[in-house]
């Protein structure tokens, strides 16, 4: 089964990295969903929740500040100024 290689990075740390089935993020002009085979895209992100569905089927929610998302050849890179994951770990600007 096809998958995405995902890196979610805040200004001061790598928040999450691994294989995923899907990524959803708050783009400036609305929610964007990324599945394997998605066309290349560069999107500006607004504050909100990035949702990552790893290949094990769980769902990871990370509250993020502004940033951007890049997709190319099933590689998704999300770079944000701040992130707070579901476990409560926080990163500030």
Please give a quick description of this structure.
The protein is an all-beta fold. It has strands at 4-9, 14-27, 30-34, 41-45, 48-54, 60-64, 67-72, 75-80, 83-85, 90-91. It is built from no helices and ten strands.
Description of the structure:
- This protein is mostly beta strands and 93 residues long.
- 0% of the residues lie in helices and 63% in strands.
- It has no helices and ten strands.
- The protein has strands at residues 4-9, 14-27, 30-34, 41-45, 48-54, 60-64, 67-72, 75-80, 83-85, 90-91.
- Strands 1, 2, 3, 4, 5, 6, 7, 8, 9 and 10 form a ten-stranded mixed sheet that branches.
- It is globular and about 30 Å long.
- The model is unreliable at 87-93 (pLDDT under 50).
Topology readout:
Blueprint lengths: L3 E6 L4 E14 L2 E5 L6 E5 L2 E7 L5 E5 L2 E6 L2 E6 L2 E3 L4 E2 L2
Parallel strand pairs: 1-8
Antiparallel strand pairs: 1-2, 2-3, 2-5, 4-7, 5-6, 6-9, 7-8, 9-10
- Summarize the amount of helix as a percent range: under 10%
Number of helices, where a helix is a run of at least 4 consecutive DSSP H or I residues: 0
Question: Largest sheet at a glance?
Answer: 10 strands, mixed
- Average of pLDDT: 92
Q: Structural class of the helix and strand makeup?
A: mainly beta
End-to-end Cα distance: 37 Å
Poorly predicted spans: 87-93
The topology string of helices and strands comes to EEEEEEEEEE
Features:
ten-stranded mixed beta sheet, mainly beta, disordered C terminus, single chain, 93 residues
